[in-house]
# Entry
Amino acid sequence: MRTTAVLRGFGQATVLIAALAASAAAQERKYKPLSVKTPDGVTIAAQEWGNPNGPEILFIHGFSQAWLSWARQVNSDLANEFRMVTYDLRGHGNSDKPLEPQRYKEAKYWADEVQAIINAAGLKRPVLVGWSYGGRVIADYLSVHGSARLAGINYVDAVSKSDPSHFGDGIKALPLMASEDLATNIAATRQFLHSCFEKQPTADDFETMLGFNMMVPPKVRAAMGGRQLNQEDLLKRMKLPVLVTHGEKDRLVLVAAAKYTAATIPGAKLSVYPGVGHAPFYEDAARFNAELAAFVREANKAHSRN
# Structure
């Protein structure tokens, strides 16, 4: 009897431990994973967050980054109201990393990648949020697929024109980030990451950022460089709501780039963050999230009125 009771107690304890572990895992993983196949056969790792019935936001990270860049958005109060999708660009994070340069040179590959994610997630009319190189990806999407399926665009420390006067000295590290020499590559990546912030990340966050930055092969980094961009005519005709967000102390993309974008797109709103660098969504997440929420609400209202 005693043995049976002990075994029963042990079994109950095991079930309890398993239940607690499952609960902890569920709390830890708040997203729904999405595996997306692009038309050129690249598998993209994507994630869905937040309110499945809320207004839609698709986040597009920058050069050498990953979806983890948006941790302070997807793990915030935004999740209560909005349906958010993040992903790793081709060549980045957990997505496939083809090494053929042309996979990164042509606008259609990047544009079709965004469209594949929109289709796979079943997004009806998302707001695109593009950080840094993510703004370049948005330009690709607009040139290939147009803006008919979008509710709005938030450019975050991004360029909309290849103008040398729009770039700061922080980009000097980029060529060495394509080095096949590991020590050189790591040193350049560390320098680049520090240049991304006026308010430097915590030691723990910096280690995480360095980890996912180093997942990008040197050949991918090299292939992404040198693409020219001039969409002035397209921007002047744009009828979407647009928010241009920029850190005043950005050393990679100067605030002049944001001012150009905002002045070129009719009705675009410019939001400059004093004392903030290239990553306002990290350096001042509270303000960024509040402004993004207000913008997405207004963009969806504007669409419903039209």
Summary: The beta strands are 32-37, 43-50, 56-60, 83-87, 127-131, 152-156, 242-247, 269-273.
